[in-house]
What does this fold into?
Amino acid sequence: EVQLMESGGGLVQPGGSLRLSCAASGFPFHSYSMYWIRQAPGKELEWVSTINSGSGESKYYGASVAGRFTISRDNTKNTVYLQMNRLKPEDTAVYYCVRDLESAVPVKFRYRGPGTQVTVSS
It folds into this structure.
């Protein structure tokens, strides 16, 4: 059974940083690309970032987070991370870890975790 569990969310001031983690189990983690998506209040799901399978050399970011967020993975820990710097109020959302993203626009996926809330506010 595929299981994904996010952690690391919280309340942070504008300009601050957070690191999200997603612990995966139930499948050969190193063989899968992994994704982060988010949903802000009252808005559609938004693709945030992608890291490819294996070593994770290829990384991709949405325009709204490029240059501020960094995705990474540790295959020894079956965990994918999202380092979020220079956070803005518009980054406030529930962040989800995803496996098998079928479409980025609109977002469609096969598996996701329960999500972790990120709130950026002074």
